[in-house]
Amino acid sequence: MWIKQLSLTHFRNHEDTKSSFEEHINCLVGKNGSGKTNLLDGIYYLCIGRGAFSYTDTQHLQHGKTFFSLKGTFEKEGRKNTVQCIVEKGKAKVIKLNTKPYPKISEHVGNFPCVLLAPNDTDLIRESSELRRNFFDTIISQIHKNYIQLLIKQKQILRQRNQLLKDADQQEKFLKKDVLEIYDAQLLPIFSEIHRFRSEFINEFVPIFSEIYATLADEEMKINYRSHLEGNKKEEIIKEQEEEIENENQEIDETEPKKSKRTKKETLSFESIFKGNVLKDLILQRTEKGTHRDDYKFLLRKKPLKHYGSQGQQKSFVIALKLATFSIIYNQTQIKPILLLDDIFDKLDESRIENLLKLLSKSDFGQVFVTDARPERTRKLLDSFGRPIAFFEVKDGNITNP
Ligand SMILES: Nc1ncnc2c1ncn2[C@@H]1O[C@H](COP(=O)(O)OP(=O)(O)OP(=O)(O)O)[C@@H](O)[C@H]1O
Ligand SMILES: [Mg+2]
User: What's the CA gap between 186 and 164, in Å, rounded?
Assistant: First the structure.
């Protein structure tokens, strides 16, 4: 799948940008602040239905403008498809596929898969578990159409349940237990479905990730999915916790099952843990346990990558994450996602850049966009690709194909 034509109107610093692209490698060069990342974000927006950097929709509006519009012509399975997104202040967002608006924006997700690798992606390693959940949820949503509906339902019911807890004002006598039971009966199967999707996904994802990481550098990296729904029962978790406690005494993580000897003895099901937590939920005025608190642990030689990984190692880790994302979406949907590589060479040493280029030129990627603020360096590096490359210059929110 690839994007043939793109037009951005009033989108960040792109007043009215139009361009055609090549099916394989497209390289965007231009000075800092010229609009390269914004252009990739425009492509991402057309594919996923929202911006990549979690800005609100109105933040994408060009200063002083009241609407933005994006239009892309995609080639997918031999057919031409047009996607248009229109965001106007004070109105609901509209996304059209071949001039027909989607009844729900979420229906668009997965139709035009795309993977973006951006400089701030290492935030995935350092920041809160919400970013990691969102990252993996976006991949699973692009593979399984019904997954996003589960997430939407989970959010809705949790909002209602938390409101009920708040209304009780920390007093058990005010808690409407019959209503709580209704919410819980809806929520528990959703938690369990989300947990199943995530577990199955990660089991397939990790070997692909490890294989890709091994081609970039020779370091032991691990990804572990952690959920309250594991029910504190797995020997593997207990072993890992002991290793982590030994290595990392000071690390505090609320989503982790309790790090104590007690863990070994607990064999309670998640449902009983969840129901037994009501008084604590009442005090916290929110739902403490569930898949909305899941996390993914990133480990370098069994220690948290966020504390012990160098910048280059963290960057290599997210590159492998993103390339593995490409592979898993392609394996599962038979559609090659568009690969958007923003500033990828930064912070990598020569050998990692060489390994990355080898990987990119060997593997069967589809359409790839690469940006760099240093055109000479990019040209030199990409010459080793052995594949035709189209160069574009981005300048003050305009694009030219010199
Ligand atoms: N809402 C907006 N309206 C108008 N201009 C904006 C808006 N948001 C950001 N900009 C401008 O867009 C430019 C940043 O563009 P972008 O991040 O795409 O640059 P870049 O080419 O990727 O630069 P770098 O090489 O530094 O990564 C800045 O000049 C910024 O002021
Ligand atoms: Mg940029």
Answer: 15
